[in-house]
Structure formats: C-alpha cells, structure tokens
Amino acid sequence: MRGPDDQRKPIGRDLATRAVDPKLLEMLACPLTKAPLRWDAERNELISPGARLAYPVRDGVPIMLPSEARPLGDDEPGR
C-alpha cells in the first residue's frame, strides 16, 4: 500500500524496471544448461551464456521457458 508521501509512479513500471532479487538470482539456473544466469538490467533479462538465450523478466517474474527466451545475437557474447 502506498502512503500519502509516496511518489506516484505506475506500479507495473516499478516492477518491470527493478532488479531481480539477488537471492532469487542465486537459486535460478538455465533450464537447458542448469548453469547460473546473469542479470542484464538494461534489457530486463536473465542471460544464459551457455544456451545463448535471454530469458525475459515480466512484472518482476522471471519467465524461465526456452520457448519465451530470446536467442542472443552474434554480437552479444553472453555478457
């Protein structure tokens, strides 16, 4: 709940642009390679260098489905 002194930003936008909880990131792994993931705050994605996939994070929820992941381009070395 927001208090009267809170800035009025759309709640959905807040969730979409905040970082993934570091403890959650420690527990997550790529469903294909089972390797740890890297957080890309600029694109709001979790990067799996081994699978060369970028999993989206929507409303603060990682979408860990390979069918929803974006393939990394040749110019994206897995960061």
Task: Provide structural commentary.
The chain is built from 2 helices and 5 strands, in the order H-H-E-E-E-E-E. The model is unreliable at 6-17 (pLDDT under 50). With 79 residues, it is α+β, with helices and mostly antiparallel strands. The chain starts with 10 loop residues before the first helix and ends in an 8-residue tail after the last strand.
Would you spell out the secondary-structure blueprint of this structure?
Elements: H1 11-17, H2 22-27, E1 38-40, E2 45-48, E3 53-58, E4 61-62, E5 70-71
Antiparallel strand pairs: 1-2, 2-3, 3-4, 3-5
Helix fraction by DSSP (H/I, runs of at least 4): 10-25%
Low-confidence stretches: 6-17
User: What top-tier CATH class of the domain at 29-73 fits best?
Assistant: Mainly Beta
Helical run tally = 2
| Structural class category | alpha+beta
How much beta, percentage-wise?
A: 15-25%
